[in-house]
Give the backbone structure.
Amino acid sequence: MSILSSYKTALVFAPHTDDGEFGCGGTINRMVEMGVDVHYAAFSACRQSVLAEFPPDILVTEVKAATKQLGIEEGNVVLFDFEVRKFNYQRQAILDNVLELKNKLQPDLVFVPCLHDIHQDHSTLSNEVVRAFKFSSIFCYELPWNNFNFTTDCFIELEPQHLDAKIRALAEYRSQMHRPYANEEFVRSQALMRGIQSSLRFAEAFEIKRLII
């Protein structure tokens, strides 16, 4: 029996829309399939960095479509509007929102970017989440283009349908297709690599910051 089945409520923290899908989209879909109550909180729709050919709020539309592809209920998606690349100036406000979600949802499993992530927004959010959830299980997901160091403490097996759901979710982010990592080949190869490392077909890897069973 998977350890995931011991958790009732999971909360995925995404600094920016699409981070959660890249980091643990397959795991999200697997948890939904298992009956875990999965919630998703994105802290910025990056209006300031959206390409000129798209409306500034395009990522709001895209994250709703993407999380739907993963099976997350619409009411379980929370969007904040912090300015991209300036999270460190709004640390207390971010912590206040994190604590509000903690008190409302009381999740027993939390996902955040790796604490070694070099993006300033990712680092700020992850540290505030760990501060707030120090008595919960915390799994840190990888975003390889931002990780100089990443310890593969845990591998979560993905069936082909979970990986396919992740691919469909990321395909909803049409405004982000110019990113070098935003392509199906990369996503599938990463899942294959983590699968080979763990003697599985496909997997997502995580650093475990806290594990409470």
